[in-house]
From TrEMBL:
Domain annotation NAD(P)-binding: ranges: 15-147
Listed InterPro entries: ComplexI_NDUFA9_subunit, NAD(P)-bd_dom, NAD(P)-bd_dom_sf
Region (Disordered): 368-388
Name of the protein: Uncharacterized conserved protein YbjT, contains NAD(P)-binding and DUF2867 domains
GO MF terms, alphabetically ordered: protein-containing complex binding
């Protein structure tokens, strides 16, 4: 079987619950491909907007039998799996799993394997992370099935481990002491542009079997990326001093301490920053796929797109762009929302309690003598028997604060109802974190009084 180069057919996506896979599936569907996904835990696909539009095969990519079933009738197979989990021996585990996948594709007569690896320099010792990415690509290039091995450096978009590390470091540290190799050159690429190349690679001519570097138009130093992120995010200028000595091991533990990115993810990523990674083959892939519509996304625009929903009510809800956070992304993706919740059973009918909540929503100020400042009505809603109102603070804060009040009738007592009060705060940078934790006792006390006040007034009604 060979890919036609013109008419999309059946594609298999492995790693569909991962960062790239979860964004590639809808891109392939939009391009006209019929998509099948191989998932070890199909339940993790629940909630995806495309879950009902794909053929889900439960199975393990380490099993030849599972792969044989999943690859039946497949024209192009996407390999988006990795073992970068901090468990150790991930190089050999990744190589063995790739060999199994390549053998299964050869046996099934798949037309093409497409793999996304890491951009790396030639003729120098590689970090463990990049060495493993290269080794997996070499496995596919040596297979009978033609392979397109795409190699990217830092991918810019919410959910990308490299971008999240950059985001959290910049958000939290106005001044940082960083390794000298943060001056190494990197050619980042927007996630939307990566998806363009991945979709296009499915239709390469059958005789193409090679690796392709993919990157944006700008070559930056990682420290420049930190500064530029801060500018786009509206943070004060970040100041970076380079330490004469800081090993990748020490730097990775520092990142693990300062950011929520797990050490098992941060360690190999930090280790790879000792290399300069710049596109070496020009735009070879574009000879077949063409450039992304409108050209490559500039770095600042890619960052801005990743930040559009940074202060969303539910940052992990389904977004409209690949740069958005998606359901199923790890908890450390995006700005870390802080939440406090109060619940009370109120001796008052739901209508009376709701009347008090509505008066809060229309008053424009909260707390004793307006101590919590002015608030704007953001939305009202109803789900089943629960009515809710959401307010957003209009004070000048180093972050975004919201208050949600919900009223639910008691199931068996018309004279009682449930009041749920939730305060959320999305901090902006270190000032936001300091504000949340520094004023936590006072705000906790004030919002407790708000909650108790609603309860008491509803009882009086």
């Amino acid at each position: 079987m060979t890919t036609s180069g013109t008419t999309p057919g059946q594609a298999l996506v492995t790693g569909a619950t991962g960062y790239i896979g979860s964004r590639l599936v809808p891109a392939l569907l939009e391009a006209g491909w019929t998509v099948r996904v191989l998932a070890r835990s199909p339940e993790k696909l629940e909630g995806r907007s495309w879950a009902d539009d794909v053929d889900v095969h439960a199975g393990d990519a380490n099993s030849l039998d599972d792969l044989a079933s999943a690859l039946e009738g497949v024209e192009v197979a996407y390999y988006l799996l990795h073992s970068m989990d901090g468990e150790g021996d991930f190089v050999e585990r990744e190589r063995a799993m790739a060999q199994t996948f390549a053998a299964a594709c050869d046996a099934a007569g798949v037309g093409r394997i497409v793999y996304l690896g890491g951009m790396h320099p030639h003729n120098e010792p590689l970090s463990t992370h990049l060495y493993s990415r290269k080794a997996v690509g070499d496995v596919f290039l040596a297979a009978d099935t033609p392979a397109a091995v795409l190699q990217a450096a830092v991918i810019v978009g919410a959910g990308s481990a490299s971008f999240e590390m950059l985001r959290h470091l910049t958000d939290r540290l106005p001044v940082m002491l960083a390794p000298r190799w943060l001056d190494n050159r990197i050619q980042p690429i927007a996630v939307a542009d990566v998806l363009h190349y991945l979709v296009g690679a499915a239709s390469l001519p059958a005789g193409v079997n090679r690796a392709f570097d993919v990157g944006g138009d700008e070559v930056l130093r990682f420290r420049d990326m930190l500064v530029r992120y801060g500018q786009v995010a509206g943070l004060r200028r970040r100041r970076i001093a380079l330490a004469p000595v800081m090993t990748p091991w020490l730097a990775s533990h520092w990142v693990g301490l300062v950011t929520p990115v797990p050490a098992g993810v941060a360690k190999p990523l930090v280790g790879s920053l000792v290399h300069e990674v710049v596109v070496k083959d020009g735009r070879a892939l574009e000879e077949f796929t063409g450039a992304p519509a409108g050209g490559h996304t500039p770095f600042d625009d890619a960052v801005a797109r990743a930040l559009v929903r940074a202060d969303a009510v539910d940052p992990a809800a389904e977004g409209e762009e690949p740069a958005d956070a998606l359901p199923g992304d790890p908890e450390w993706v995006g700005r870390q929302q802080r939440t406090e919740t109060w619940r009370s059973i109120v001796d008052a009918p739901a209508d009376d309690l709701w009347a008090e909540v509505e008066s809060i929503g229309s008053s424009g100020s909260l707390g004793p003598r307006g101590a919590l400042g002015p608030w704007a009505l953001e939305s009202t809603g109803r789900e089943g028997t629960t009515r809710s109102v959401r307010l957003r603070s209009t004070r000048a804060l180093p972050g975004t604060a919201r208050l949600t009040l919900a009223v639910t009738p008691a199931p068996h007592d018309a004279g009682q109802s449930l009041l749920t009060q939730e305060v959320t705060f999305v901090p902006h940078g270190l000032a936001g974190e300091t504000s949340w934790w520094g004023s936590y006792p006072a705000h906790r006390a004030l919002f407790t009084r708000v909650h108790q006040g609603i309860v008491e007034r509803a009882r009086v009604r």
